[in-house]
Amino acid sequence: MADKKMPYYNRELSWMDFNARVLEEATKKENPLMERLRFLAITGSNLDEFFMVRVAGVKAQVNSGMKAKERFDLPPQDLLKELEEKTHAFMERQYSCLHRSILPTLEREGIRFLTFEEMDEAQKSHVNDYFHHVLFPVLTPLAVDGSRPFPMLANKSLNIAVCLESKESKEKEKNFAVVQVPSILPRFLELPCQEGRAFTLLEEIIIAHLDELFELHIIDAACPFRVTRDSDLEIDEEAEDFMSEVKKSIKRRKRGRPVRLELLQKCGKDLKGFLVDMLKIKKNEIYQLPGPLDLTFFSKFAGIQGCEAMCFKPVVPVAPADFWGYDDIFTAIRDKDRMVHHPYESFDCVVKFIEQAAEDQDVLAIKQTLYRVSGNSPIIAALIRAAENGKQVTVLVELKARFDEENNINWAQKLEKAGCHVIYGLHGLKTHCKIALVVRQEEDGIRRYLHLGTGNYNDSTAKIYTDVGLFTCNSQYGADASSLFNVITGYSRPPEYRHFAVAPHGLRGFFTRRIRLETENAKKGLPCGITAKVNSLVDPEIISLLYEASQAGVPVKVIVRGICCLIPGLEGVSENIQIISIVGQLLEHSRVFRFENAGDPKIYMGSADWMPRNLDRRIELVFPIEDEDLKARAFGILETLLSDNTNARVMQGDTSYQHVSRRGKTAFSSQQAFYKQAQDRLKALQKIEHDSPLIPIHSAEDAT
Q1: Which contacts of 402-407 are long-range, i.e. CB under 8 A and separated by 24 or more positions?
Q2: C-alpha distances out from residue 115 to 25, 108, 126, 348, Å
Q3: Cα separation of 9 and 550, whole Å?
């Protein structure tokens, strides 16, 4: 394990730096205005989850008196102090960006947010109608007194605290109440406007009409507030009914201990005292902000109609060139391994792979892992159809996919009802690998078709996450896939895989051997080098091995979107390591690993980040790309990413990040380059077809 003197940057602090890079995108004047709002909303959503899981976890460590797990890490109480300072400063920067930069620019574009007092008579009339016809029937004013306790407020819900004085009582006694801002309704309302566009927020409308909710009282003061709760699920994996245990733990999440209270800066002393008293919140857990609270609503606002010119030009996925000219997906895969790069190339081919398997009379079985799926998943629909068509369908639905548990429970129940074999993951392990196996009876015997990916089987996120998928019917890959599913579904001992590297038993060893081999090659003067792309680099052992490789002279380049605990550029330790982070229009999600291997470079892809959980506590899959054409494309993906000088930032030895210097070079965005490559590859094939005297038929419709 890592040396106690090993430079190691704390993961929570590194995560805060990542969110700061996202916030930086919100401040960039060259980004379209609505996209800046969207980036701001993402920082809010990220921060919510950070409080619910990471900050809550550190608080739990402090409360239990736990010491730092590793000698090179920070004691929990020191870390908590630093996190509180960082989160307060960060939220100040969020609101500074909103009020000093984004909202004034929106106003110049003719878009304004109005308080009730700022509205003209026509707008007030519109708001009054909306309140009486839509809002009022939904609202529930909750008095808090001796007989009515403070309500259990849902995690992250927006509420209004109200301080009241009775009209009837002579004593000036203060009463308190809470009104929840209904999340079922849109947070913002467009108002009639003579010039430009005007909007108001739901809480503004409610506060302006509080006297109608509390007719026997005088409204003394009102203030929106929001509570974030500890949501780190603890699940008893020994429970006989695992699904009902997950359901119970989801309910517990809603009642977790408050870890943050957000209030408006103008909140009065009485209301603040009431909330602190009721929620048992500590002083440093209070965040007083200019408002509006809960910036995540700007994500929806950024998509309002009529503002398309203020958004990024959308990346519209093109048909994958690798499947051009084929109507039958199995024929295409039989002819050659195929690779698709999402979202530049459409995810439809993955959906079609399962849909075609569901209807194909020669398909005997489909086996698939599902970690996060969309709300209306065409893949689930296809798996249900396959079971109804009499095929053996086995699906591993990971019920422990954080914040997707409820969605996954619903899907698991629907799949079971249709006759699919549903497995809920393995004891103590999350199943995070992305693999689909189709078993087909053909003239020359049984053939196994595979899809292996770096991302989830989620048609929604496939439009905004960058991922790579491989389709193959290589028989050795097929044998490895069958072995992997036997481990997941039965009592099989982990086998010796021919091509796959699988966690938790073989992946750490695989990466250790590969990194050490590069170190040995450097010492022998052979070609060496490591290039990797991951979401997070946290694992102390991997970091230690990369430091050793750097010291032996191995050039190491790692593209890390989020958390990076390795510190590059330190003399005698990591001067041969470069860390790059790319934050842009699309979320970088693919994991790719290249090892120079003494002049015969190897490249792998998969589902695993360089984190202890991925290497030791999850079922993860990393697979090689062996087809020469696809290898060249995969190498090209890494080279293109390393050439980015628009969305790329380089981590410095002091853990700060700086934009890549262009030094007179033309602006180059890897994401735009990938999009153009996908379009060009398809256009080239379309041109060949157009110039060809024989036009192949692509679908049954073309034949009519």
Answers
A1: 402/53, 402/233, 403/49, 403/231, 404/371, 404/372, 405/233, 405/246, 405/249, 405/250, 406/250, 407/372, 407/373, 407/375
A2: 28, 18, 14, 45
A3: 17
Q: Two tokens at 362?
A: 């020669």
Phi and psi for 191 in degrees, rounded to 5?
A: -110, 155
Q: Which of helix, strand or coil describes residue 605?
A: strand
What is the chain's length? 704
Q: How far apart are CA 476 and CA 487, in angstroms?
A: 17
What does the alpha-carbon distance between residue 554 and residue 546 come to, in Å, rounded to a whole number? Answer: 9
Amino acid at 384: I
d(CA 471, CA 519): 32
Amino acid letter, 260: R
End-to-end CA distance of the chain: 66
pLDDT at 414: 85
Q: Is the peptide bond before 292 cis (omega within 30 degrees of 0)?
A: yes
DSSP reduced 3-state for 217: strand
> How many Å apart are CA 271 and CA 219, to the nearest integer?
12
What counts of helices (H) and strands (E) characterise the chain?
22, 27
pLDDT confidence tier of residue 704, bands split at 50, 70 and 90: very low
Q: What is the pLDDT of residue 691?
A: 67
Active site residues: 432
**Please, are residues 190 and 112 in contact by the beta-carbon 8 Å criterion?**
no
Q: CB within 8 A of 117, min separation 6: which ones?
A: none
Tell me which H or E stretch contains 266: none
> CA-to-CA distance for 267 and 263, rounded, in angstroms?
7
Give dist(CA 341, CA 592) in Å, integer: 12
Unique residue bearing structure tokens 């839509």: 134
- Residue 454 host element (H or E): none
What tokens does 332 get?
């295409």
The token pair at 425 is 């993951």
At 662 the pLDDT is 84
- Distance of alpha carbon 400 from alpha carbon 253, whole angstroms: 13
Q: Note the pLDDT tens digit of each residue in 512-538.
A: 999 999 999 999 999 999 999 999 999
User: Sheet holding 174-180: strands in order across?
Assistant: 141-144, 174-180, 158-166, 217-229, 258-264, 286-289
Do residues 353 and 438 touch, judged by C-beta distance below 8 A?
Answer: yes
The runs of H, that is alpha helices, within 286-404 are 298-301, 329-335, 348-359, 378-388
Q: Is-contact 286 275, C-beta < 8 A?
A: no
Q: Which of helix, strand or coil describes residue 489?
A: helix
> Cβ contacts of residue 242 below 8 Å, gap of 6+?
399, 424
Give CA 612 to chain center in angstroms. 19
On whether the CB atoms of residues 139 and 206 are closer than 8 A, the answer is: yes
pLDDT, tens digit, for every residue of 116-130? 999 999 999 999 999
Strand 587-588 to strand 465-472: parallel, antiparallel, or no bridges (unpaired)?
parallel
Phi/psi at 539 (5° precision): -60, 120
What are phi and psi for residue 244, nearest 5 degrees?
A: -70, -30
259: number of CA atoms within 13 Å, CB side?
30
CA dihedral in degrees (217, 220, 226, 227; nearest 10)? -80
Report the alpha-carbon angle 433-436-441, nearest 5.
150
Per DSSP, 401 falls in state: S
